[in-house]
Design a protein that fits this description.
By secondary structure, the chain is an alpha/beta fold. 36% of the residues lie in helices and 10% in strands. It has a single domain, classed as TIM Barrel, CATH 3.20.20. The chain is built from ten helices and nine strands.
Length: 338
């Protein structure tokens, strides 16, 4: 059977984008109840190779948005690379420099929670994937007290840390999805050509931690199984002057949960139906999660991932759906604008 082509913007087919917020302890260190997450962080070292194998088997590319503090082999390198200007959050507990750096071990062998250079090298062995930025310190761009100068210092440190490992950062994911449009020009000035914006609905509007509500969290949780916000597929973006290309998220791949196992079919259908919508309409479906989400119940989570990737292969065969990294989407947008 021949490939069915759907109408698209300037001939571009439906597109599957995958991004992962790769952060280990740096992304959770300011949260309560971390004891229960240790196995998640440690399990990344077993889960990440399986994710990479699944991606390769299904011909899917991914963008790994990586916290800059993970790029080091040891603490001496890390400390020597810290930015001189640091975030002055009103809540200083949010800063890793004030509250957490003293807990970091000497190297990756003794402290696998805070170092990730070997895992980054593992990703580099699969050059079809993109290593991108999740800022240097898991920087919170909407929290009170911080400012643009401090964000720029953080981003510069991230760029330099990546460069030392032969990585050029071209895309960025804002930690906690705290998208701040005031910082986009800074991103572009330091080589960032794409960023992951938020889903276009009230449940996902960017807010600081203090502005978040239990209602929104609960509704986002329910949206995993119930269609509260639609497919959240996005048309191909247009280039905006002075700004990187916005490639908004579509869905968070929530990890497998024993207590919710009876709802697994609903969770998977919520994702695959949105992928079909993107394939039919020539739009972008952008799926994201954290590697540590697969750190426990790894076999179950990889099985779900394989089901999603297998569905992409069916959409590719039937409708010509393509898999692109965030940087590759930006390349096409920028080429179209020139």
């Amino acid at each position: 059977m021949g490939t069915k082509r759907s109408p698209t913007r300037k001939g571009l087919p439906g597109t599957f984008v995958v991004s992962l917020d790769f952060e280990l302890m740096w992304g959770m260190r300011d949260k309560d109840g971390l004891e229960g997450y240790m196995n998640n962080f440690l399990g990344v070292r077993h889960a990440l190779p399986q994710m990479l194998d699944a991606f390769e088997e299904h011909g899917v590319k991914a963008t790994f948005a990586t916290v800059g503090l993970l790029f080091f082999d040891n603490k001496a390198q890390m400390v020597a690379s810290l930015p001189g200007i640091r975030p002055s959050y009103a809540n200083q507990y949010l800063s890793p420099y004030e509250s957490h750096l003293g807990q970091v071990g000497e190297d990756e062998a003794t402290d696998p929670l805070h170092f990730g250079a070997s895992l980054i090298r593992l990703i580099q062995q699969r050059p079809q994937h993109e290593i991108a930025s999740h800022t240097f310190s898991h920087y919170y761009c909407l929290e009170r007290g911080q400012n643009e100068e401090q964000f720029e210092a953080d981003l510069k440190a991230a760029v330099e840390a990546a460069k030392a490992m032969g990585v050029t950062l071209r895309s960025l994911v804002f930690p906690r999805n705290q998208f701040n449009p005031s910082y986009l020009a800074v991103c572009q000035n330091h080589g960032i050509q794409a960023f992951r914006g938020n889903e276009n609905n009230w449940l996902h509007q960017a807010r600081s931690n203090d502005q978040e509500s239990l209602l929104r969290r609960g509704m986002r949780f329910l949206d995993t199984w119930l269609d509260l916000t639609g497919p959240n597929c996005h048309p191909w973006p247009l280039k905006q002057a002075g700004s990187p290309v916005n490639i908004p998220s579509s869905r968070f791949l929530r990890p497998w949960d024993q207590r919710l196992r009876m709802l697994e079919n609903l969770r998977l259908k919520r994702i695959t139906r949105a992928m079909e919508h993107a394939a039919h309409t020539g739009t972008i479906f952008h799926l994201w999660w954290h590697p540590h989400n697969f750190g426990v119940h790894t076999a179950r989570n990889i099985a779900v991932l394989r089901a999603v990737l297998g569905h992409f292969n069916r959409m590719k065969e039937e409708y010509g759906m393509q898999s692109l990294t965030m940087a590759e989407v930006a390349d096409k947008v920028l080429a179209d604008a020139s």
